[in-house]
Amino acid sequence: MEFSEEQEIFRRTVEKFSEESLGPRVREVESTDRIPEDLIDGARGLGLMGVGVPAEYGGQGGGFKELAIMSEEISRILPAFGTLLLVNRLFIDPLMLFGTEDQRRKYVTPVARGEVFAAHANTEPGAGSDVAGISTVARRSGDRWILNGRKIFISNADRAGFFVVSARTSPPEPDRRWRGITVFIVERGYSGLSIGQRLDVMGLMGEHPSEVILEDVEVPDSNVLGKVGEGFKVVVTTYDYSRILIAAQAVGIAQGAFEAAFRYSNERNAFGKPISSFEGVSFRIAEMMAEVEAARLLTYWAAHLAESGDPRFTLASSIAKYYATEAAVRISRDAISIHGGVGVDRGTLVERYLRDAMITTIYEGANDIQKLTIAKSLLRAYSKGASIE
């Protein structure tokens, strides 16, 4: 995979920000479970909120390669900060793909400029990977819609000014459960919208998800995103793209864990020599490096296909997300093992890689869903006599 000179300059810029600004604050974020505002201001000053957004909508330009680069380099140091930035894409992408020009100019522009954070509210207590299973409802009332329901595990909800919210505008049809879902753009100031409890999840310290509660929230008809009743496509297409960025986040976590393990294996002595000189450790280090590189290649392959408009990108993004996140878990676990007793000491900041990696296997579609997508794609190609390469 080749990168342009501009992309390499961008990588070095994000790398420098991550190492010099985020790196010294990791322990603070882990202990306080909060991301300091000055770090967010630093990212805003670099224009990181607008990466991948065209200049006419307040962005910095670039595409999914740049977004993957940003996700990887930031997540190598502080994955929670990567989540804070990337959740905006769950709002931006559906508007860029399905929104009207007025909607894009009104809502994408301030998000890309870093003036407003945004969130994507689809998951419910009874519906996560099963998008068609949502129970939030919206009924028409004149030129407005009235939304009622409860969303859960919504990242950035506590700071978001804009939300995309999925709701049922008609009951599911027996053989087409996906029918009848509509997506709405909801502003934080709308009456009836409130943020519920902040959920204390196991990883990504500083960027915990929250509940979003909708009680008779009035949304103007102009804020319908896409077509009424066809919101399922809006949601799942958004995830097709966002999986690439989660794969990149996992690559960053894996790289960070690998680097920590490699350094420690050369610094820690046992029986009079560095433990990296022992075959059991050196072979594990070699395996970790191979997995990192394989995950990275799959991720940027998916990003390349997405930028090229190649329809195979949906399959590629599932493969990349599945492999990279599972690899991040294995590499993080091995990093802890190489560190031995200090690996499970929270003060050494090693075990955090595993906590963060586990979350990447679940959000943006649990990995069992990715395997299902991959298998269905293969079977569909086989039934049509098409190539499965």
Write the layout of secondary structure elements.
Blueprint: H1 5-22, H2 26-32, H3 37-45, H4 64-75, H5 79-86, H6 89-98, H7 101-112, E1 117-121, E2 137-141, E3 144-154, E4 160-168, E5 181-187, E6 193-198, E7 210-220, E8 224-225, H8 231-267, E9 269-270, E10 273-274, H9 279-308, H10 313-339, H11 352-360, H12 367-383
Parallel strand pairs: 1-4
Antiparallel strand pairs: 2-3, 3-7, 4-5, 5-8, 6-7, 9-10
Helix pairs in contact: 1-4, 4-5, 4-8, 5-8, 6-7, 6-8, 8-9, 8-10, 8-11, 9-10, 10-11, 10-12
Question: Mind explaining what this structure looks like?
Answer:
The protein has twelve helices and ten strands. Strand 2 and strand 3 form a beta hairpin. Strands 1-4-5-8 form a four-stranded mixed beta sheet. Helices cover 50% and strands 15% of the residues. Helix 6 runs antiparallel to helix 8, helix 8 runs antiparallel to helix 11 and helix 10 packs antiparallel against helix 12. The protein folds into three domains: 108 residues, Orthogonal Bundle (Butyryl-Coa Dehydrogenase, subunit A, domain 1), CATH 1.10.540.10; 112 residues, Butyryl-CoA Dehydrogenase, subunit A, domain 2 (Beta Barrel), CATH 2.40.110.10; 151 residues, Butyryl-CoA Dehydrogenase, subunit A, domain 3, CATH 1.20.140.
Order of strands in the sheet with most strands: 1-4-5-8
Over all CA atoms, what is the radius of gyration?
21 Å
Mean pLDDT: 95
Terminal Cα span: 19 Å
Q: How many structural units, i.e. domains?
A: 3
**Which second-level CATH architecture of the largest domain applies?**
Up-down Bundle
Could you name the CATH topology of the largest domain?
A: Butyryl-CoA Dehydrogenase, subunit A, domain 3
Instruction: Supply the CATH superfamily name of the largest domain.
Output: Butyryl-CoA Dehydrogenase, subunit A, domain 3
> What is the global morphology?
globular
Work out the oligomeric state of the chains in this entry: single chain
Largest sheet: 4 strands, mixed
Total count of strands:
10
Specify the structural class. Answer: alpha+beta
Number of helices: 12
SSE ordering: HHHHHHHEEEEEEEEHEEHHHH
Q: Helix share of residues?
A: 40-55%
The CATH class designation of the largest domain is: Mainly Alpha
Low-confidence stretches: none
